[in-house]
């Protein structure tokens, strides 16, 4: 039995609903055919490389992610990182599946959007094929385990790797200990207690010492610290601009763009920022650039009003209040706060 780490943030709006149904997925939809799977299982590395050269005109390093995924064995344990949490899954199939084999009539994305199939790919309501090519049937042993409470330093660090997947056999004991602590509800107290107690102090300092411009700079610094390749401020006077984003963070390696509204407020924040970021994201989704796009609203305020929460739930917008953002800053590293704002 091997231990693996595998990310599914690519096409997250569909890959997570598929995981809930017991399917772990990966992209590479250009290679979705049975011969491809058979050749990999026969260790035909020459064929594998040749297919990339034929289809893409190059042999990328990222192909190793697909090779490993297709070579997962029945009984292997796979850790699937998510936002602040992780899943523990077990491979239960004998061989990989083509993505259309995951289709069911009730399959929907986040936001309750219906998914169909053209016989080879899964297809969105507007007829566009999702870039998911292969799947593994899994049993989810545990879901949404808190990283802060149950993952030790080594496992937490490994979950930050930027590649899609990798072997974590060297962390077998760390994984087993985290699972045992989760089952017995024994958090790793030092980390969680420090974060919980310190977050209030950080938030108080943010509210008393910063202003809107400095808060926005702090948010930009956070995204740079967690690995964004590019963090920019969109032009405020674009003629065709709909909605508004204060910050755009691009994570090139995982083809992810996060649009952020940064709101320096106290008390309860209303739905205005949520509507602004929704309009901006909706406008940008019309650009077919191969990136997965998500929207966040980060605020120093204590809470969001009910309407903001409703809009966010219906449109998959991440709302982050002041206390949660303070915890994120601490988890990203105390050196982040050593910044001239």
From TrEMBL:
<dbReference type="InterPro" id="IPR011335">
    <property type="entry name" value="Restrct_endonuc-II-like"/>
</dbReference>
<keyword id="KW-0255">Endonuclease</keyword>
<protein>
    <submittedName>
        <fullName>Restriction endonuclease</fullName>
    </submittedName>
</protein>
<dbReference type="InterPro" id="IPR011856">
    <property type="entry name" value="tRNA_endonuc-like_dom_sf"/>
</dbReference>
<dbReference type="Pfam" id="PF04471">
    <property type="entry name" value="Mrr_cat"/>
</dbReference>
<dbReference type="GO" id="GO:0009307">
    <property type="term" value="P:DNA restriction-modification system"/>
</dbReference>
<dbReference type="GO" id="GO:0004519">
    <property type="term" value="F:endonuclease activity"/>
</dbReference>
<keyword id="KW-0378">Hydrolase</keyword>
<dbReference type="GO" id="GO:0003677">
    <property type="term" value="F:DNA binding"/>
</dbReference>
<feature type="domain" description="Restriction endonuclease type IV Mrr">
    <location>
        <begin position="209"/>
        <end position="329"/>
    </location>
</feature>
<keyword id="KW-0540">Nuclease</keyword>
<dbReference type="InterPro" id="IPR007560">
    <property type="entry name" value="Restrct_endonuc_IV_Mrr"/>
</dbReference>
């Amino acid at each position: 039995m091997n231990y693996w780490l595998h990310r599914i943030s690519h096409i997250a709006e569909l890959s997570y609903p598929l995981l809930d149904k017991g399917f772990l997925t990966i992209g590479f939809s250009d290679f979705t055919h049975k011969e491809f799977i058979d050749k990999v299982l026969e260790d035909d590395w020459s064929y594998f490389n040749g297919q990339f050269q034929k289809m893409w005109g190059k042999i990328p390093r990222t192909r190793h992610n697909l090779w490993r995924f297709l070579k997962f064995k029945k009984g292997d344990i796979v850790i699937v990182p998510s936002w602040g949490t992780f899943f523990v899954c077990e491979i239960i199939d004998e061989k990989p599946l083509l993505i259309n084999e995951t289709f069911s009539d009730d399959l929907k994305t986040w936001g309750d959007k219906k998914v169909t199939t053209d016989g080879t790919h899964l297809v969105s309501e507007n007829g566009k094929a999702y870039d998911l090519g292969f799947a593994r049937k899994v049993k989810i042993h545990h879901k949404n385990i808190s990283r802060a409470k149950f993952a030790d330093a080594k496992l937490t660090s490994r979950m930050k790797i930027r590649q899609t997947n990798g072997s974590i056999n060297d962390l077998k004991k760390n994984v087993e200990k985290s699972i045992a602590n989760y089952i017995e509800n024994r958090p790793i107290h030092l980390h969680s207690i420090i974060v919980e107690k310190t977050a209030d102090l950080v938030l108080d300092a943010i509210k008393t010492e910063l202003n809107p411009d400095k808060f926005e700079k702090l948010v930009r610094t956070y995204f740079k610290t967690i690995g964004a390749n590019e963090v920019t401020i969109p032009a405020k006077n674009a003629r065709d601009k709909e909605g508004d984003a204060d910050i755009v963070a691009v994570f090139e390696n995982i083809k992810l763009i996060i649009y952020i509204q940064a709101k320096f407020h106290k008390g309860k924040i209303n739905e205005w920022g949520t509507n602004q970021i929704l309009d901006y994201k909706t406008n940008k989704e019309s650009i077919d650039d191969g990136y997965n796009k998500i929207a966040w609203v980060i605020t120093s305020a204590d809470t969001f009003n009910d309407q903001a929460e409703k809009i966010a739930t219906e449109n998959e917008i991440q709302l982050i209040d002041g206390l949660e953002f303070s915890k994120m800053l601490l988890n990203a590293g105390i050196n982040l706060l050593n910044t001239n704002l």
